[in-house]
């Protein structure tokens, strides 16, 4: 019986600076975040040795408005 390694995988989703869909309270997340989630989940599902451990999302933050926390 062969033993296969399963790798716990974290997905990291970040708002694209080109995504202008954040409009106050009307949407729960940007289209960019939804698309990234779909692409990454599909990738993980296509690899038998990967399993999603957690998903981390920075929706509403981009490299343009990043603030360093000390």
End-to-end CA span? 50 Å
- Helix tally equals 1
Instruction: State the share of residues found in helices, binned by percent.
Output: 10-25%
Give me the count of strands: 2
N-to-C SSE string, H for helix and E for strand: EHE
Please state the overall shape, judged from the principal axes of the Cα atoms.
Answer: elongated
Fraction in beta strands: 15-25%
* Uncertain residue segments: none
Mean pLDDT: 79
| Largest beta sheet: strand ordering | 1-2
Largest sheet: 2 strands, parallel
Structural class: alpha+beta
| Rg measurement, Å | 16 Å
Key terms for this structure?
70 residues; alpha+beta; two-stranded parallel sheet; 1 helix; elongated
Summary?
The protein has one helix at residues 31-45, and strands at residues 7-14, 50-58. It is an alpha+beta fold. The protein has a two-stranded parallel ribbon with strand order 1-2.
Structure description:
- The chain is of the alpha+beta class and 70 residues long.
- Helix content is 21%, strand content 24%.
- The chain has one helix at residues 31-45; strands at residues 7-14, 50-58.
- Strands 1-2 form a two-stranded parallel ribbon.
- Strand 1 (7-14), helix 1 and strand 2 (50-58) form a beta-alpha-beta unit.
């Amino acid at each position: 019986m062969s033993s296969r390694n399963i790798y716990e995988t974290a997905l990291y989703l970040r708002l694209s600076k080109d995504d202008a869909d954040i409009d106050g309270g009307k949407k729960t997340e940007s289209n960019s975040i939804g698309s990234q989630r779909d692409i990454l989940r599909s990738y993980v599902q296509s690899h038998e040795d990967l399993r999603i451990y957690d998903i981390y999302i920075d929706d509403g933050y981009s490299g343009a408005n990043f603030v360093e926390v000390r």
